[in-house]
Each structure stands twice: as C-alpha cells, then as structure tokens.
C-alpha cells in the first residue's frame, strides 16, 4: 500500500498571525479588477494550508482496512471529518462538508491530496471559482453558466445549489445536455439525476468497501499499477450519462431519427453545400434522382440528408412525403470531426439499401473514418462533378481528390460528364474489369436563366481551373473594342487571386450569381473550361453560340473550336445568324438526349448494376 500520509505542507494550528495572510479570491467578492484579474480578499494563511497534525494522527489510528482505495486518501478523508469548521469560515462550510465527495476531491485533484489541504475549505476559497467539482456529478462551471446569480450570491456554486435545491428552482447536472437526454429516456431531469446518483453510488460502494473492491485489492498485490486506477474509479461514468461528447452524439442521433419519423429508408441521399448557381433548391442531379426514385419506389422510402450549414433545400420542388434531415443543425454543438460519428450512425440506423453521396464534403470525410463499416451493409454511390485542372486541390468544384481514396468502397461512380469519367479511368488507371462502375447519369436539361436586362456580346463563364485564360481574354477584348465582354468570376477562394480588367473599358466582371449570370442577354458564350458546368449547359440549352474547349465540346456532343478563341469569335460574328442556327440545333439535340425518360432509364440501369454486384 502507498504511504498512509501523503506529502503535505507544514500544518499550523490555532488562529493565524495577522501578518501571515495571503490574498485568496473568495465567492461574492466585489469585482475590483486590475486588468482581467479579479480582486481578492485577505484570508488567513492557515485556511489553505495542511490539515492539523492532531487530526491526521487521530485519523491514522482509525481502522480503514475495509476501505480498499488508497489508504493515504482514507486517512485524509477521516481527518477532514474529524476536523471542526476552521475559524474564519462561515456556516456554508458545514453544508458543503456534509455533501461533498471528499475521496473524489482528493483523488481528482492530486495537488490537494499532496499538500494535505482541507478540500471543503479549498473549494470554498478557491476551488469553486477555479471550476473544480465537489462531486463527480456536479459541474461548477456548468452551474454558474446556467445560474449566473450564483456568482453574486456570496456562495460557492455547490453551496448555492444546496441552499436553493429544496424549492426546485435550480438543477444540478454534470453535463450540458442532461435534460435533453433525460427526455429521450422518458425521464424528468430530476429522476434521471437521482437514478444516476444511485447507480454511481452503488458502484462506488462496491469498489470502496465491497467484494468488487476486495478483488481489485487482491489484484493490486500482484501488480501495484492496478492501485493507480483508484483515481479513475472515483469518477465513475455510467452510459449514457458519461461525457458531454457521448451525450451530444446521442441527442443529435435522436433528433435526426425523430425527423425521419423513426422509420427506415431504402434510399439515402446526402447533400452538402449547394453550388453557387443554386439559390434555394437542390442541385439538379440530386433533385431529379429523388424525383425518379420517388416515382418508382415512393417518396416515403427516401431520406435526403443535408449537411449544408446554411440549411437544407426548400421542399417545394421535391416530392411530397420526402423526409429531409438537417444534419448540420442536429450536430451544431459538435466540431466537424465529432459530428461524423452521429452522421454515420444515423445513416446506418436507417438500414438503407443504397446511399448516394452527392459530392458532399462531410460524407467524404465520414467515409475516411467509417467507410468500411458503412460499405459492409450499404451500397455506396458517389456523384462527382467535373474534374478541374488540379485534381488534388480541395477547393476545386469537384471531389476528384476523393475518387482514388474511396473507389474500392463505392459500388458505382456517377457523373453527368463523359470527360470526367474518361479522366477518372485514365488518370487513376482503373482496371478494365472495374470500369463498369463508372456510370454516366445525365439529368434532364432545365430552362435557361431569367433575363437580367443587360445586353452583352460575349460572356466568359469562368471556372476556378480556367483563370489561366484571363490573359487570353484580355487580348481578345483589346483586339475587339467594338464588342462588350462580361466575365462571370467564381466565388473567391482563399488560395486564389482573381484577375482584374479595370483597364479595359469594354469588360465588366462580377461574381457568379445565383441565377447563373446574364446568359439570356449574351450573343456568344466562352466556355474554355475543363468540363461542363450548370451555367455552360444552361447556355447551350438556351441556343447560345459557344466557343468551347475540347472537354466542354465532348460533354455537349459537338466538335471543339480549336485552340484559338479569337479565330472562333471571328467566325461566329462574321455570320451570327448561321452560328445561332447551329447553336439552336445543338440545343434541340441536347433536349432530345437529356430528357426525363432517358435519365430514369440510366438510373434504373445503375440500380440494376448495383443489385447484380450485391448478388455476386
């Protein structure tokens, strides 16, 4: 057994010499501050020094053989119980002494045990203000946060609670979401607290003086390291009231399950931060997937999980009966890393057949940690946008950086861009036997953007990866001063410097708006990017002549314009009606190819591919 008396400061008895005082912050002291440091009242030094020798000697002579925790702690506890109220402390001392968990305070705060300080006096004079806890089931910091008036009462947080608890006006809880978790269990906060106190007390009794403690004591004789575990035994935590994090996860999971009406779903679709050109609705691909699934299987079989901090999409243009879950709101009390666990548990608890990840950053992060566990019971489908020039730039509009990491976990990889799928296959050396997992899924085309009333000859739809084209655009604008140019720049990212065209009177720039830019007013659209995006597609469907890169032209099903945009513009403006007629023909072809019936057939083929793979 350890030394029965821990190291402690020399004790002094009787009244302190007036000269031997120290400044100690006391509860209720008026806040006279010097900077941010609260003022302190002079307190006799002996109140925060070691327990007097006579009480320690009397405690050491007491029989503590039936107490199995640290015998040195047992001596200190008995010494405090023998010691009367120190001179200079008021009646709150006796109130605290009857309710404080003295073994816990000594074992939790080893500095108090090492110096042999009276824990009741320490809590009154310093510990309460420092946020130390008098029992494992009471949080001083949380109590003061709930009841700020406790600071002005002249009492410690625990003293304030003990004084006011009889009226039921204050509640003690160790964790911040105690009341929410109690409600989930069908208990009142008081009943939950009483049940937890009884359960923890029962375990403590069995450890400290029962058969369980006897077994630990015998094991300690074989391995002295076991005796070091008594500190942890003093702060027993019983599930589910075990920590703020555990409770926050349970509450978040319950909130999401309640929003899902506690029913399973065959299909789960996750949706992250919406693209810039989407104001209130869901991205077109997700919206059409949900509609097609609802038409075939019923909206009640689908759950749409939004991780967008700005909130879920409006349900006005989604199927009636679709369950939309705001995961970002449910996990708002957790940081991003801790929120992944309830997000994963919620999806798994729905027991879906298929989970479709709509290029959602939180979902990709979740798969890094829980991907193998989730894919063991759920078929995962990844929806990918276009691939930027830098596939590994996490600020890229596509999630291409996640393709290689998660390809083996995914049952299918889908995109509305043939260029993107081709690059995946080539750049990541996808084996021929696995290329069937790469699936083209083209949503039906949508109407063009509303008119803004501002005419422009040439609109450059700039994507993040296309900023290198800025110098070429400057040459175009200088060489054609009779034409007006509009540049739709992407939203500024922290590692991006956007070009400026202030020196060119015929060029105006603006950030990408929610309506996709002045597509309706443009005579010609420049699309030099590395793949199709919604605004480019909107321009093509609107019948606008396009100067398109090879990647964009491939996605649109037409020939590229070559490497010289200036020559392409000259050809178009030399015979604008002919170019418009050619663009109208492309628009008709796109509408014929990208229609609802074909999209649903592609989706049905995708689901069939997944089911066949699951049967293997």
Q: How are the SSEs ordered, and which strands pair?
A:
Elements: E1 21-24, E2 41-44, H1 53-60, H2 71-82, H3 92-99, H4 102-108, H5 110-115, H6 119-130, H7 140-146, H8 149-152, H9 157-164, H10 178-184, H11 189-209, H12 211-222, H13 230-233, H14 244-259, E3 267-271, H15 284-297, E4 302-306, E5 323-326, H16 327-330, H17 336-349, E6 354-358, H18 361-375, E7 379-383, H19 401-406, E8 410-415, H20 418-427, E9 438-440, E10 456-461, H21 470-479, E11 485-489, E12 507-511, E13 522-527, H22 534-541, E14 546-548, H23 550-556, H24 565-574, H25 576-593, H26 596-615
Note down, in words, how this protein is organized.
With 616 residues, the chain is an alpha/beta fold. The chain has 26 helices and 14 strands. It has helices at 53-60, 71-82, 92-99, 102-108, 110-115, 119-130, 140-146, 149-152, 157-164, 178-184, 189-209, 211-222, 230-233, 244-259, 284-297, 327-330, 336-349, 361-375, 401-406, 418-427, 470-479, 534-541, 550-556, 565-574, 576-593, 596-615; strands spanning 21-24, 41-44, 267-271, 302-306, 323-326, 354-358, 379-383, 410-415, 438-440, 456-461, 485-489, 507-511, 522-527, 546-548. It has a 7-stranded parallel sheet, sandwiched between helices. Helix 22 links the parallel strand 13 (522-527) and strand 14.
